[in-house]
From TrEMBL:
Residues 425-483 are annotated as: Disordered. It is an enzyme of class 2 (transferase). The lineage of its organism: Eukaryota, Metazoa, Chordata, Craniata, Vertebrata. This is RING-type E3 ubiquitin transferase. The gene is PIAS4. Residues 2-36 form the SAP domain.
Length: 483
């Protein structure tokens, strides 16, 4: 039917599905044939039949030429791109269709069709904690079936025996959770760049006869700030039939204008310990390269009025305020300060953000490096929490401030000494504000001294003559804190 269409019919068909209507007739025929073989649907077939009947009903008694009939085997392949019993498309391999043999004679004598223009596909970002083993369903757009806000999109597929064995023989990360999983990933339908996982509103996922749990929202403590939802792959493995039986997955989603795509993958989930071991194997930067980076950072700039002679680097992790064990940073970071890879990976395993805790810029796993120079320094310098890099690439520990912080801020004065007495009494025998000096007990002298005993007796006799004055603390003016 398509091969018998005129230019106007081809343009109406291509316009119906939103394809380009410009070009010569053989270009329009090529697009229409690709549409029939790869992106056909019951609606498209209905439109083709309608255009065909409209064209030849106008001719009245004129006998319409029969549509070209391809060989039987190829005719089956032509219409196997859709399943009348379900709405699940099956991809037809391009190599199974011989364009010149089937349609070359209809294209104005051309023996070869132009190569098929590949439509850009939706791509999802790679996740460090998931290694993709198989792609069960390429990212497919969720198409609304009606004008309702709540839509349902079904998908039917079956696992191969090899995939079932991989799941069954995988280790358990925790009771009931296998490391090899079938996961559902959802993202925006955007082909410009790899997309991060993003859930549509009102999402619900049903596997066979049971609903699968979907990560909820993080509570927000700030007023006026909407709670955020961690969008990550949804594990469907525990609800699937691990056999040759088909599994039915139904995604319920809210249709509010934005377009989403879903994909199914067989993955192996990694742990933070496994990623750390991989980083130690392939991500260590040689100490000499790190030393050259230090020199570059401290290289004198002739246009700068301030000469940088050194830069300080803390040996304390900014994440947990503990001494670094595996110092790392992203290669894209401009600073020399490192954070601990162990805690960084554990933090992103629970709540993936992959943001540098020093400069608050993206620090994805594949850009992390272990600083070999700082690792060496950590083993050689165990009694300091900070070092300073010098312009020649060398380093020195910073201990002076630490020692001063533990030393007395001012000298300790011994009570009873001449210096203290000088502070408390003036030469004319009076203290501050003209008052009598306070009594000072010299604890350094022997209590059996006869001279001191006599002086104390005389003072007591003088005090008995009048009312007993209120005594001030003898250490108020003379005692100086040691810290």
């Amino acid at each position: 039917m398509v091969m018998s269409f005129r230019v106007s019919d081809l343009q109406m068909l291509l316009g119906f599905v939103g394809r380009s209507k410009s070009g010569l007739k053989h270009e329009l025929v090529t697009r229409a044939l690709q549409l029939v073989q790869f992106d056909c649907s019951p609606e498209v077939f209905k439109k083709i039949k309608e255009l065909y009947e409209t064209r030849y009903n106008k001719k009245g008694s004129e006998v319409a030429p029969p549509p070209p009939a391809p060989p039987r085997a190829e005719a089956l392949a032509l219409h196997s791109s859709y399943d009348r019993g379900s709405a699940v498309p099956r991809t037809l391999p391009a190599a199974s269709i011989d364009y010149p043999a089937l349609y070359g004679k209809y294209l104005n004598g051309l023996g070869r069709l132009p190569p098929k223009v590949a439509k850009p596909e939706v791509r999802l970002v790679k996740l460090p904690f998931y290694t993709t083993l198989d792609e069960l369903l390429k990212p497919t757009e969720l198409v609304p079936q009606n004008n309702e806000k709540l839509q349902e999109s079904p998908c039917i597929f079956a696992l191969t025996p090899r995939q079932v064995e991989l799941i069954r023989n995988s280790r358990e990360l925790q009771p009931g959770v296998k490391s090899v999983q079938v996961v559902l990933r959802i993202c925006y339908t955007d082909t410009s760049s790899p997309q991060e996982d993003q859930y549509p509103p009102n999402i619900a996922v049903k596997v066979n006869h049971s609903y699968c749990s979907v990560p909820g929202y993080y509570p927000s403590n700030k007023p006026g700030v909407e709670p955020k939802r961690p969008c990550r792959p949804i594990n469907l493995t525990h609800l699937m039939y691990l056999s040759a039986a088909t599994n039915r997955i139904t995604v319920t989603w809210g249709n509010y204008g934005k377009s989403y795509s879903v994909g199914l993958y067989l993955v192996r989930q990694m742990t933070s310990a496994e990623l750390l071991q991989r980083l130690k194997t392939i991500g260590i930067k040689h100490p000499e390269l790190c030393k050259a980076l230090v020199k570059e950072k401290l290289r004198l700039d002739p246009d700068s009025e301030i000469a940088t002679t050194g830069v300080r680097v803390s040996l304390i992790c900014p994440l947990v305020k503990m001494r670094l064990s595996v110092p790392c940073r992203a290669e894209t970071c401009a600073h020399l300060q490192c954070f601990d890879a162990v805690f960084y990976l554990q933090m992103n395993e629970k709540k993936p953000t992959w943001m540098c805790p020093v400069c608050d810029k993206p620090a994805p796993y594949d850009q992390l490096i272990i600083d070999g120079l700082l690792s060496k320094i950590l083993t050689e310098c165990e009694d300091a929490d900070e070092i300073e890099y010098l312009v020649d690439g060398s380093w020195c520990p910073i201990r002076a401030e630490k020692e001063r912080s533990c030393s007395p801020q001012c000298p300790i004065l011994v009570l009873g000494s001449s210096e203290v007495n000088g502070l408390l009494a003036t030469p004319n025998g009076t203290g501050e504000n003209g008052k009598a000096p306070a009594d000072v007990v010299d604890l350094t002298l022997d209590s059996s001294s006869s001279e001191e005993d006599e002086e104390e007796d005389e003072e007591e006799d003088d005090d008995d003559e009048g009312p007993q004055p209120k005594r001030r603390c003898s250490y108020e003016k003379g005692l100086v804190s040691a810290c």
